[in-house]
Structure formats: structure tokens, C-alpha cells
Amino acid sequence: MIAVIDNAIPYIKGVLEPYVDVVYAPGDAFKAVLDSHPEEEFCLLVRTRTKCGKDLLQGRKVRMIASATIGKDHIDEDYCRANSICVVNAPGCNSAAVMQYVFTSLAYSDILPETVENRKKTTIGVIGAGNVGEKVARLAERLGFRVLRNDPPKEAAQLAALSSGRIAPGNIIDYHPLEEILESSDIITLHTPLDETTRSLAGKRFFSVIKKGAHLVNASRGPVVDDNALLKSKKLGLFICDVWNNEPDINKEVLQRSALATPHIAGYSVEGKQNATDAVVRAFAAFADINALKDFTCRSKDERHHLDISKNLKPQLQDFFPIAELDKALRQHPEDFEKLRKEYIYRHEFDY
User: Fold this and answer.
1) Torsion angles phi and psi, residue 48, rounded to 5
2) CA triplet 18, 23, 27: central angle to 5 degrees?
3) Is the pLDDT confidence value at 300 over 90?
4) What average pLDDT does range 278-303 have in this prediction?
């Protein structure tokens, strides 16, 4: 068996070599590697840049795909199921990093109220309250914001658990309809996965219902937002964007419309990348029955920052994560989107 590994996955070189043959390749070059070893079986360790569908997989002996990402929209799971290809990913691996991005971008854009009194008057709507969204919601509540969550799958699961007695009424989380969040929120942040229920979620209806002057953060997936509807909106306040339609060939008008623009690096923290690498190595070890790697970790020590929420937030957040440099670089050279993403130096997360 050969493990083909995206050469942009950090902290992994040398880890699998004692156990299996390993080939490192750019994310868009996996097909050539597979074709150069037609008789071999493969496990693929990928990121979002490797599109794992019929075009890559058909006629090739791929047995497993482990993605060092929180999402799986780059993988055709139906095809994999039909062809007995094991698929795993790393849910939640960079959730703290994306939470950090949200609050840093709000601070940079001067829409993060500094006083608790002003935060109490501000409503944040979290659309998609999973690993990332729930972290955003909890810090927002600690800071004094009013928080409204929207997550239909989680709401349905909670109702089922409540009716079966698996959770007590006092432990439920309040979820709200999407329209209520759009009508009531001063800041809206998107954290949904990308699927057919969320593609173009932020479309014509979304921007017609949204509260006038409300600000929007998209750190989920680019196609969750309809670019044309966004550009036509007369009610939207500031738009903060880390993820884009048609990456890396991003829409220049959307770039100009954005108050803050970054090249899909919201989750690019040291800790997030370490978590993702741990997850794919452990998954591969379980699949290949390599006992020595089943509890693998590449983290030697915890170097996270500490956010003192009793003090001025903006200088702390911007010191931890100097986001303005990325915004400037992307605006000057949007054609370098992939280069900026690839060469980004991972930052440390914070606790609080």
C-alpha cells in the first residue's frame, strides 16, 4: 500500500515512512501519482484542493481517503460508499482558530463593541452552531452579546433527544428560525457545512430579510453566499470574507465589497493544523492497523495566547493575529490567492 500525502499537510513528514511507502504531491497532482503505480493500493491523505470524485478515483485502487479538514465537500461520499472507499475527516480540528478569526476580524473592522454595556445591546446571529459556531456563540455570550443560534439539524437532534429523555429540559439550547436571526441580528456569522441545503443560503431572500446595516462574516464555504445577491444588497453593512466562490479565481467585485478579505486562512493555526494531522494519522493507523500510531500526536507543548476578556480586546486580538497584513496583500495581488494561502505562517490560537 502507498500513502499519497498532500505536501502542504504540516507536521507529517517522516511519520508514516517507517510503516508504508509514502509519496508527497501537490493537492492537484494526485491523479498522476496514482497512474504511475497502476498495480498498487492507495490511501490518500488530502486537503480541500484534491477533488476526490469519480474522475480521480474510478479505475484506481484507492481504499481510504483521510482529509485533514473539517469539511468533506471536496469528496464524493456517495461514490466512495458505492465503491467501499473509507472516508474520514477531522471535524472540529480548527474550530478555535476560526472562532479567533471571527472576533479578530470584527475587532479589525471596528464592529466589536469594547464595553460590556454596548455588547449587551448588540445581537450576534450564529448560522450553523456546530464545532465552530458553538465556540463563537459561547465566547460572544461570555463577552455580553445577545446570541441567537440557527442550526436545523442540531435543533432536530435535540428535540429527538429531549423526547426520548436523553437530555433534560434544563439542558436544551435555544435555536431560532433563520428569518428571526436575519431580522434581529446586528452581526451575522456563517458556519454551516456546504451541501445542497446550504449552497447559496445567503441569496436573494437572505439579503432582502436581513436587518438594515447588519454585518456579515463568512468563514464557512464560499458557495454558501451567492455573489450576485451579495453585490446587489442595499441593506448589508460590512462584509468580512475568508472563503470565496471559485477559489482561487475570486470575484474581484466581491473583494472590493469586502471590508476585510483574506485567502481562506481562518482555520490556519498551529494548533488547528496539529489537530488535523493528528486526526488523519490516527485514522490511517486504525485503517492500516499500525498500533504505534493509533495515539499519535505532533504537539509537544501548548503555546496558545491568553485573551483577557476584562481588558481592551482589540489590541490583544490584533497582536495575536495581525490580520491587516493579509487583507492588504490580497487586495494588492488577488491573483496570488493560492500563493498567499500556501505561504501563510500559522498563528497560535488563544484561550480565555
Assistant:
1) -70, -20
2) 135
3) no
4) 94
Q: Which of 264, 282, 341, 347 is the catalytic position?
A: 264
* Residue 221 designated active-site: yes
For residue 305, indicate whether it is catalytic. Answer: no
Write out the DSSP string of 46-109: E-TTS-BSHHHHTTS-EEEEEESSS--TTB-HHHHHHTT-EEE--TTTTHHHHHHHHHHHHHHT
Catalytic site residue from 221, 282, 341, 347: 221
- Per-residue model confidence as pLDDT tens digits over 100-130: 999 999 999 999 999 999 999 999 999 999 9
Q: How far apart are CA 128 and CA 103, in angstroms?
A: 16
Per-residue pLDDT at 302 exceeds 90: no
Indicate if 215 belongs to the active site. Answer: no
Q: CB atoms < 10 A from the CB of 278, how many? A: 20
- Mean pLDDT across the stretch 51-78? 96
> pTM here?
0.91
Q: Are strands 86-88 and 146-150 parallel, antiparallel or unpaired?
A: unpaired
C-alpha span between 32 and 36 (Å, rounded):
6
pLDDT digits (tens, 9 = 90+) for 125-142: 999 999 999 999 999 999
Q: What are the CA-CA distances from residue 149 to residues 81, 126, 181, 217, 225 (Å)? A: 32, 5, 8, 15, 18
Pairwise CA distance, residues 49 & 55, whole Å: 14
